[in-house]
Amino acid sequence: MPDTTPAVADETLIRFARRISHDLNNFSTVVRTYSELLLSELPADSPTHADVTEIQRAAESMVQYLQRVTRFARAAGMKKAPVPVDAVVAETVDAFRREVPTRTIAIAGTTGTTINADPVWFREVLTELLRNAHEVAPADTPVEVHLSMANQTVRIEVQDSGPGFAASLPSIGEPFLTTKNGVRGAGLGLALANAFAMALGGKLEAQREIRTRVSLVLPTA
């Protein structure tokens, strides 16, 4: 059974993420500002209007992507409070079902416990894992979330029937590495999950047998 455990992000990588996020955000602000000015001056039926609209949409996507980079860089400084695992997982899955109604998402098991974490971060990381599974899983196949607890440790496992990870991928938790071709913004979801897990003293694991399984393994409160 292949097992890939992410390496810990070092301080150099974190500083790089902070700096590149700051600089690129400044560039994208210029693009957004001038595209808005151009759109206000162009007739709606102008062929150029559609081109500038696409430029603006790309700039907005860049801002969202940079927000994810910033969250990755700030993981170690997250505020922590007791968070009920089962309730937050259920809420996050319900929200994702509404976002992607064509995908069946099932929850199995319970933990009956809490973790010390930032609840917003926790929801975002769970959503990243669900979205990652949804993007690679074949149509009409379910994504499953399995909850369990043992030895004061919570395991939140997301399973899908996608192709899994390439054997050449050094670490599933390393930023900007991805096996998904043509997906804009790919390569940060698992890095965010890994940074979150490490900040709580846990880890991110992945296995591939018949199905791909990505697990957050976290200490209880």
Give an account of the 3D structure:
There is one protein chain. The protein has 221 residues and is α+β, with helices and mostly antiparallel strands. The chain folds into 2 domains: 11-76; 77-219, Histidine kinase-like ATPase, C-terminal domain (Heat Shock Protein 90, 2-Layer Sandwich). It contains 5 helices and 8 strands; from the N terminus they run βααβαββαββαββ. It has helices at 11-41, 47-73, 85-99, 119-136, 189-199; strands at 3-4, 81-84, 105-108, 114-117, 143-150, 153-160, 203-208, 212-219. The strands form 2 sheets. The chain has a 6-stranded mixed β-sheet. A two-stranded antiparallel sheet has the order 2-4. The two termini are 30 Å apart.
Any descriptors?
single chain; 221 residues; alpha+beta; Heat Shock Protein 90; 2 domains; six-stranded mixed β-sheet; two-stranded antiparallel sheet; 5 helices; 46% helix; globular; disordered N terminus
